[in-house]
Amino acid sequence: MTGLEKILSQIQQESDDRCREIRENADKEAEKIINEAKERADAFLAQRKASADKRAELIVSSARSSAELTRNREVLKEKLDIIDDILRRSLEVIKALPKKEYFEILKELIYKNARQGEGELRLSKEDTAKLPSNFIDSVNNSLKGSKVKLGKSADIDSGFILVYGDIDVNCSFDAIAAEKKDELRDTLNNLLFN
To answer: Three-state SS for 144?
Structure first.
């Protein structure tokens, strides 16, 4: 081998060594970049999974809350329906009482709602037709400072309306029940469901 061939062989060897070194460094650098990218991707995926888990947890929690609210609303509606049915039946029982007991209840209501002066007692057509003959006299004998006279029939189902000039005191059983409905609902709710 000549001197020139040796020099060329040495240059070739150095060139091959340098290329191998560059390739090894490039492979190491590529592996480092790939590992960093993989770490970033893993961190990103973990963050996205945590975020998705949190969103899923919120959705499930919201769905549970919504279902609980709907259930509570349905239970409350059912309780109110039961209470309203009891109130309706109570009014039916009062209306179906024997004549004497029924008119005793009316008397008590008149005593509680009578005002000073003379008032007009307006009963339903049905109650006016079955009014005991001494009812008005009996009521007036027990009233102090006031008096009632029988007026024309009122367009109500049961109970009465007391009229004092421009003032009407509605004592129909439906009006009393409507006025006391919330109070009666609370009372019945405590008795039935607590």
So the answer is: coil
Cα→Cα distances 85→38, 109, 120, 185, 194, Å: 69, 23, 33, 11, 18
Tell me, yes or no, whether 187 and 102 share the same domain: yes
| pTM, full prediction | 0.58
CA pair distance 101, 140, nearest whole angstrom: 18
Strands 146-150 vs 117-123: parallel, antiparallel or unpaired: parallel
Instruction: Determine how many CB atoms are found less than 10 A away from the CB of residue 174.
Output: 14
The dihedrals phi and psi of 134, each to the nearest 5 degrees, come to -100, 10
Q: What is the pLDDT of residues 130-182, one digit of tens each?
A: 889 898 988 888 888 788 888 898 898 898 989 988 888 999 988 888 887 77
Which residue range(s) make up the domain with 180?
98-193
